[in-house]
Design brief:
Shape of chain B: rod-shaped
Radius of gyration of chain B: 62 Å
Order of helices and strands of chain A: EEHEEHEH
Distance between the termini of chain A: 25 Å
Oligomer: heterodimer
Largest sheet of chain A: 5 strands, mixed
CATH architecture of the domain at 323-546 in chain B: 4-Layer Sandwich
CATH architecture of chain A: 2-Layer Sandwich
CATH class of the domain at 323-546 in chain B: Alpha Beta
CATH class of chain A: Alpha Beta
Helix content of chain A: 25-40%
CATH topology of the domain at 323-546 in chain B: Phosphatase 2c, domain 1
Shape of chain A: globular
Radius of gyration of chain A: 12 Å
Number of strands of chain B: 16
Number of helices of chain A: 3
Order of helices and strands of chain B: HHHHEEEHEEEHHEEEHHEEEEEEHHHE
CATH superfamily of chain A: STAS domain
């Protein structure tokens, strides 16, 4: 199960997925990202409550990173140890701005 | 007829039978009640009207008769005087009695002290009227008043100036025939009531008139009843039963044959029945269309199934799947296993000899599952193996592959790949990891451990990036195990994952087995862990031992 909390202020969008980001829930996260990206100057992904991310979730991250790279910036915050390990293993930590 | 046809439906035990017959039964019952009510009412009204009419005519008879009597000489008659006049009056009354067809005409003088007795003055009997057996009273014959009713009527005539009084004896107790007795006062010249004249008339005429009336009435009612029952029967049959039976038959036929029948159309002039028929017509069309669509959809699904099954076979055979793969090589042994979650999957593995001394190994996992992932997997596998044969380190190879894939990657898909090239003579291995899981290595006499190395981005994520090489040394007797996240992320029904720990523990339980046995044991371990939960992700493993 996944819940995505969204806050938006002056073009600074913050998405905070809560739960597991896997094949089943990634389409929903994908939809959220595609919805906010066009109007975002700055995108912050808050992974504080994210328990797990699968390759489908990484795909959504990749899309967001590519899109925001063209029009602004994107950062990922509050990444927990387990998700960080996945980002490291998959090499995503190399291309993401993680704070 | 309706009964016979209902048997074919098989429901004749639970339904009540013919609608028309039930209607008719109800109507006949109602008519019977109606008939009884009409009969009783007509009996009562007829009797009442007849009695009133009878009473009035009898009064007129009595009044006429009383005019024949001279009220001034009543006492004289009783004393035996005025016999000539008495005889004349007697004769006149006798003739009158016969011509009026009444049973009795008599004049009495009542004892006015208590009206309990009277004396007969004149008494004329006409037994011929209704076969009675009256005997005429002699003049002067004394008698007690019959009952209290008579006493009161006498008193009214004498004292209250009543014009006439009537007594009905519908069921006389003294054996006489039913009769009506009408009494009128006989007055003297001074207007005083001196005696009473009574006319007794049989009321058998009432019965004679009433019986045919009731019988005719009943007969007409019954006749009309049956007539309306039959009219109703045919009306209901034509207007309701036949149309509804058509609808019912059509529904039954449709249930049996599942084909569109001749439309029922305007089978009735009633909106409700026409609506019902229209609904049946529409239901048939919709149902048949639905069945056709369903059949098409099923056929389409079967075709897709067949195609998928074929695609599955093609994918299985796109990777080396005949073991032992190198029966004439004693310096290494390799075994691999791939099981997609659906018919086709996004995982792949590959191994082949670049030359006699170099073995290439690859394992990959496309983001996503199913047909899109499978197409992506096929392309990637071919590009990787072709480029590998052209030479270079795994890092160089993956860099080329990445750029090639990125050029055509509109679907934002990516694939994690671990690619290693082993120099068989020395055990020196160069590997590059594009976002894939770390391999597990089991040193001879040791146990399986992850060999963590530097990771690169997955293939297809971003063009133009550089891929780093790592080196691994495999001694003789060392084992290498690579896998996809289908192993570590196999999930049981409580959502718990098999994990790296579970995988390493299972590997180490069987670390001394052959590659084939190790993979089979890990697969068994994963299946046991997952239990009844469905396989969620593609599951791929490859194990190499250097002898």
């Amino acid at each position: 199960m996944l819940r995505v909390n969204r806050t938006m202020e002056n073009g600074i969008v913050c998405l905070a997925p809560e739960g597991r980001l896997d094949t089943m829930t990634a389409p929903e996260f994908d939809r959220e990202i595609k919805e906010v990206v066009p109007q975002a100057r700055e995108l912050t992904l808050d992974f504080e409550k994210l328990e797990y991310i699968s390759s489908a979730g990484l795909r959504a991250l990749l899309y967001a990173q590519k899109a925001m790279g063209k029009q602004g910036q994107m950062k990922v915050i509050h990444v927990n140890e387990y998700v960080m390990e996945i980002l490291d293993v998959t090499g995503f930590s190399n291309i993401l701005t993680i704070e | 007829m309706e009964h016979g046809e209902q048997k074919s439906t098989g429901f004749d035990r639970t339904i009540r039978g013919s609608m028309a017959l039930n209607f008719i039964g109800g109507i006949i019952l109602l008519l019977l009640v109606f008939y009884i009510i009409v009969s009783v009412l007509s009996f009562v009204f007829f009797t009442d009207a007849f009695q009133k009419e009878y009473m009035v005519t009898t009064y007129h008879m009595a009044e006429t008769a009383s005019l024949l009597v001279n009220g001034d000489h009543i006492d004289e008659y009783l004393e035996g005087k005025e016999t000539e006049e008495y005889e004349r009056i007697h004769d006149n009354l006798t003739r009158y009695c016969i011509s009026m067809n009444v049973s009795l005409i008599y004049v009495i003088k009542v004892d006015t002290s208590d009206y309990g007795r009277f004396v007969s003055v004149i008494n004329i009997v006409n037994n011929a009227v209704d076969n009675s057996t009256y005997v005429p009273w002699e003049i002067g014959y004394q008698r007690n008043t019959t009952n209290r009713e008579y006493e009161q009527k006498y008193k009214k005539l004498y004292e209250n100036g009543s014009a006439y009084e009537t007594v009905f004896q519908a069921k006389p107790t003294d054996g006489a025939h039913p009769h009506i007795t009408t009494m009128v006062p006989v007055k003297d010249a001074a207007g005083e009531v001196v005696s009473i004249l009574c006319v007794q008339r049989p009321i058998s005429e009432l019965n004679n008139a009433r019986r045919p009336f009731i019988v005719n009435m009943g007969f007409v009612t019954l006749l009309l009843g049956f007539l309306s029952a039959f009219v109703t029967f045919f009306f209901i049959r034509r207007q309701f039963v036949v149309p509804i039976k058509k609808v019912s038959d059509e529904a039954t036929r449709f249930a049996r044959e599942n084909t569109i029948g001749k439309p029922l159309g305007e089978i009735s002039q009633y909106r409700e029945i026409v609506n019902l028929a229209d609904s049946i017509d529409k239901m048939e069309t919709d149902m048949v269309n639905y069945i056709v669509n369903l059949t098409l959809a099923t056929a389409e699904r079967e075709r897709m199934g067949a195609e998928l099954s074929l695609a599955s076979t093609i994918q299985e055979n796109a990777v080396p799947n005949v073991f032992p793969a190198f029966p004439d090589r004693k310096d290494f042994d390799i075994y691999a296993f791939m099981k997609p979650a659906k018919e086709v999957g996004g995982d792949f593995y590959n191994f082949f000899l670049i030359d006699d001394d170099h073995l290439a190994l690859s394992i990959g996992d496309v983001s996503g599952k199913g047909i899109p992932a499978a197409l992506f997997m096929m392309v990637t596998n071919i590009v990787v193996s072709d480029r590998t044969l052209m030479g270079g380190t795994p890092g160089e190879i993956l860099e080329f592959v990445n750029n090639t894939i990125c050029e055509h990657n509109q679907a934002e898909m990516f694939v994690t790949i671990w690619l290693g090239i082993l120099e068989l003579s020395t055990g020196h291995m160069i590997a590059a990891n594009a976002g894939h899981e770390d391999p597990a290595i089991c040193r001879k006499d040791g146990s399986f451990e992850l060999a963590k190395t530097k990771h690169n981005m997955p293939i297809g994520a971003m063009p133009g990036i550089h891929f780093l090489d790592n080196t691994l040394e495999l001694g003789r007797g060392d084992k290498l195990f690579v896998y996809t996240d289908g192993v570590t992320e196999a999930t049981d029904k409580d959502g718990k994952m098999f994990g790296l720990e579970g995988m390493l523990a299972t590997l180490n339980e069987h670390k001394d087995s052959s590659p084939k046995e190790i993979l089979e044991d890990v697969h068994t371990g994963v299946n046991t862990f997952v239990g009844d939960a469905a396989q969620f992700d593609d599951l791929t493993m490859l194990c190499l031992i250097r002898n």
